[in-house]
Amino acid sequence: MATETSTQSYSEKWYWDDRYTNESDPFDWYQNYPSLAPLINLYAPHRTHRALVIGCGNSAFSEGMVDDGYEDVVNIDISPVVIDAMNEKHSHRPQLKYLKMDVRDMKAFEDASFDAVIDKGTLDSILCGSNSRQHSTQMLEEVWRVLKDKGVYILITYGAPNYRLRLFKESSCSWTTKLHVIDKSLTGQPLESPKWELTKPIPLDDEGSSVESAIGKSPDVHYIYVCIKDEALKTETEAV
C-alpha cells in the first residue's frame, strides 16, 4: 500500500518524470489490454474510429489495441520523459501517436475529435492531489469536449459508484453511464472463469446504491464506467 505522501505524488509531473527515467519496463495500471478487449470491442467496435488514451505512461495497452486492428490511437501523458521514450519505441507504427499534454487542458484537440477516450487510473491520480475536485472537473469537461456526440469515455478505476457518480454529476457534462466490473485477480491472466461477466452491465441507479445488492459489499473488483456523451441531455438540462 502506498504511503499518503507517495499517493499524493501521483498527481505531480515530477513524480512521473522521475519514475519513467528510472523504470523503463512497460507497466499497465489495473488491467492490461487482453483482459479488457471484449469491453473495448463492445463500445468501440469500429477499428477505423479515433481513440484517445489519456495518461498513457509506458503501458502496452495502446499497442494491444493496434495489434487488435485499431488504426488511430492517440496517447497523451504529462511526462515528456515517457512521451519521448514511447515515440522512439513506436516510431515504426503510424497507428500510434504520442503527445505530451495535460488532460486538464487539451486545447490542441478540436471539439468532438474522438470516438472514444480510455482512462486507466488518470482520474484516480488527479484525485490523489491537491485541489482534486477542481482538477478532476476540468479533466472531465475536457474529455467531454473532445468526444463526439455518443462517443464513449471508458474509465477503469478503483472508485466505487457512490464516489465516482457524484463526481460525474459535479461537472457540467451530460453522460449516460453504464457500469461494468472485472475481478482484480484477473490482471495479467487469461479470462478463463471470471466471477463477473465483463460485457454485462451491473444495475446502476442514480446514487450507485443498487450495485452493492448486485455484487456485494467491498467486492475485489475494478470498476469500469462507460460514459456515453449525450448532447441532448445537456440541452435539456440547460433548458430547465
Automatic annotation (TrEMBL):
Family: Belongs to the methyltransferase superfamily.
Alphabetized UniProt keyword annotations: Methyltransferase, Transferase
InterPro entries reported in the protein's UniProt record: Lys/N-term_MeTrsfase_sf, Methyltransf_11, SAM-dependent_MTases_sf
A biological-process GO annotation: methylation
Top-rank taxon, per record: Eukaryota
Keyword Transferase: yes
Pfam family, one: Methyltransf_11
Listed name of the protein: Methyltransferase type 11 domain-containing protein
Ranges for domain Methyltransferase type: 53-154
Keyword Methyltransferase: yes
Molecular function as annotated in GO: S-adenosylmethionine-dependent methyltransferase activity
